[in-house]
Amino acid sequence: MHNRSTLLLKLVGAALTLLVCLAPQVQAQRFAKRGAILTLEGDSIPGMLDAYGGDFSPKAIQFQGDTQDQFLEYGPQDIQGFWLEGDWYEAAQVQVEISNRPQQQPSYKPEFEYQQTQGFLQCVIYGPKQLYYFKSPEGGVQFYINLEGNIELLTYRKFIKEQMSDVFLVEHKRYISQLMMYLGDCGGIIESLEDLSYDLASIKAVFKKYYACKGFAAPFEADEKKFRIRKGLILGTTASWLAAIPLDLESPGSPNRLTGQANFPRVRYTVGIQFQPAVEQDFKGWGFNSEILLTHMQVPGMTTAFINQSITQERVFEFEVFVLRLNALMRYYLPKGRVQWFANGGVGIGTLFGRDGAVNQTIYQNGEVQPLNPVVNLADFARIGEGSLLVGGGAKISAFSAEMRYEVATDLTKDDDLAILPNRLSILFGYTF
User: What is the pLDDT of residues 12-44, one digit of tens each?
Assistant: First the structure.
């Protein structure tokens, strides 16, 4: 127990030291793309732009103009908006209705509850009639229209209503009457609004129908970015140890009892990259991760097998290998405020290379060492491939994540009598962009 506690303290200490050392460098990285800002004076300035807001719409951007030598931060109060990957984002101070807030439980109050916030609204439809999308921690997903130069919220609220002994979830769909007024100059649109859902696809379809009704296309329509691949980096520390299991106990000459197993876990490192398919604007719940990880594993240990009453086999070994593996994980996210807690599990396949070390085998008969005590090279003793099962959990804030993960792999050895299963406990830090 003391050894395990000491190991855990060392692992946590190493992870914290690593985080403190790397945080400034990682924070300084800019994963920017080509874009442009529109200044308050109406000037368009091209450059490199980073508008990553995690799972929410951006509230600030990092921008480096073509004539600037560093990135500067711009908020809604500093610019009119920006273009990025063909989309226009408009700076605005807006109201949000808080019943749509992520993980918000509906209240019993039917009255609308508003909160002021600011950010960059994505323009979904731009023209004589405009539609904007905005997702914030304060109000969740909200939609807006441009009414004579003023950005107006399309209001929607969920609340609980009690009647007699029954409880109902009621939806207050004021946005339907707002759209009837806003798009009412097209008579054929009214029927499409009667059962309109408060989601991007439904509201956008109504606007497209309106423009078709008026006989012209919208001057600007945002791209359908429903899906993308998030790429990321992984860096962490890994403690490895081995579990020895006897095989085929009934066969003649095989160990009929395995005891005296002793392993001394050592902390080494893990580095890698990850690929995370995700819904662009409403990512929550189940997701899928794939990773390519490289782990340095060094584990000394000893096993003692009693062949029969007079013969004992002792193996003393030290494995040192690099494990390159591909992991596939299912991950479930549970947002709580600005933090996304997650749990994941999955499988991996890997290959072992750079194998170094030896296995010393000693045979005792009636307590005396026998003359033949071969030393087996690790390259001849260990397999070159492995499969693994893994589980873990952690938290994600914006682009950064931290996770503790446990992993058990398949038999490391070519031995017919003994299976040695690598076990790994890792603390991993990730950054997605």
Answer: 555 445 544 544 333 334 457 889 999 999 999
Q: Is beta strand 266-279 parallel, antiparallel or unpaired with respect to 311-336?
A: unpaired
Query: What does each C-alpha distance from 2 to 8, 14, 260, 268, 423 come to in angstroms?
Result: 10, 18, 18, 20, 19
Alpha-carbon gap, residue 104 to 121, rounded angstroms:
22
Under 8 Å between Cβ of 242 and 263: yes
The two tokens of residue 46 are 């091209």
Decide which of 2.40.160.20, 3.40.1160.10, 2.70.70.10, 2.60.40.420 is the CATH code for 227-432: 2.40.160.20
- Residue 144 and residue 44: Cα distance in Å, rounded? 24
CA separation, residue 184 to residues 179, 180, 192, 201, 213 (Å): 7, 5, 11, 20, 11
Three-state secondary structure call for residue 398: coil
Q: Give me the helix-helix angle, 200-214 and 174-182, nearest 10°.
A: 20
Which residues of the chain have a pLDDT value below 50? 1-5, 7-8, 15-16, 19-20, 22-30, 226-227, 251-257, 259-260, 279-283
43 CB neighbour count, 10 Å cutoff: 11
Instruction: Give the ranges where 236-369 is alpha helix by DSSP (H).
Output: none
Q: Any residues with CB less than 8 A from the CB of 60 and at least 6 apart, and which?
A: 73, 74, 75
Determine contact, residues 418/258, Cβ cutoff 8 Å: yes
The domain segmentation of the chain, as residue ranges, is: 86-221, 227-432
Q: What is the pLDDT of residues 114-172, one digit of tens each?
A: 888 999 999 998 888 899 999 888 778 899 999 888 899 999 888 888 877 778 788 88
Distance, CA of 35 to CA of 89 (rounded, Å): 11
Partners of 215 in beta bridges: none
Pairing of strands 44-50, 400-409: unpaired
What would the two tokens of residue 419 be?
Answer: 């299976």
| Mean pLDDT for the chain overall | 77
The total of other beta-carbon atoms located within 10 Å of residue 222's CB is 21
